[in-house]
Amino acid sequence: MNLFRLAGDFTHLLSIVVLLLKIRTTKSCAGISLKTQELYVIVFITRYLDLFTKYYSIYNIVMKLIFIGSSIGIVWYMRYHKVVKQTYNKDQDAFRHYFLVLACFLLAILVPLEFTVIEVLWTFSIYLEAVVIVPQLVLLQRSRNIDNLTGKYVFLLGAYRALYILNWIYRYFTEIHQIRWIPWISGIVQTALYADFFYYYMKSWKNHEMLKLPA
Asked: Where is the chain membrane-spanning (predicted)?
């Protein structure tokens, strides 16, 4: 554990807190992609299967359970809460996310870390997380005006990935002295997808304007 990893974990956790705060206080999921949230459920469940096979630490177990439980809870709110589900804009959240699942699964079979069930699913989760934000970004481009909490949520997700890249660089020089290509490349791709959002987020923050993404 190092400072970058710890900061990344808690930034990720803070992004979930911000999203749950938005949903619970406003009773609205407007601007949030259900498809991205469903992809996160798949990512966490397939990545954390080692909960049943390996023990690392109490911290590791607790964080994994929080990410799995919170992602399922968010999907439940958006699908089944009698008030929140009425604010979900299905027409704008129209990205066909199942293509991402299929493509990442095929890639995980063709280019796995190791060819075992757990490792193929772990690799699949890494590939899928790299593109999990795509439906959310497409939705924000279509809705144009982005509320403050939604903007903060997406910004924190991007910051979490950037911090994890710093974590990998730090570990390369201090611990493992080798590059794990699958998470490194996937993490860089994911962070790059946020670049356009970061630019407009910082621009709106600097000018005290409502956040808008170009169509």
From this structure: 55-77, 98-118, 124-141, 153-170, 182-202
Which of 18 and 180 is assigned the larger pLDDT?
18
User: Tens of pLDDT along 100-134?
Assistant: 999 999 999 988 667 888 889 999 999 999 999 99
The CA distance from 186 to 201, in Å, is: 23
For residues 38-53, one letter each, b for 16 or more C-beta atoms within 10 angstroms of the residue's C-beta and e for the rest, the string is bbbbbbbbbbbeeeee
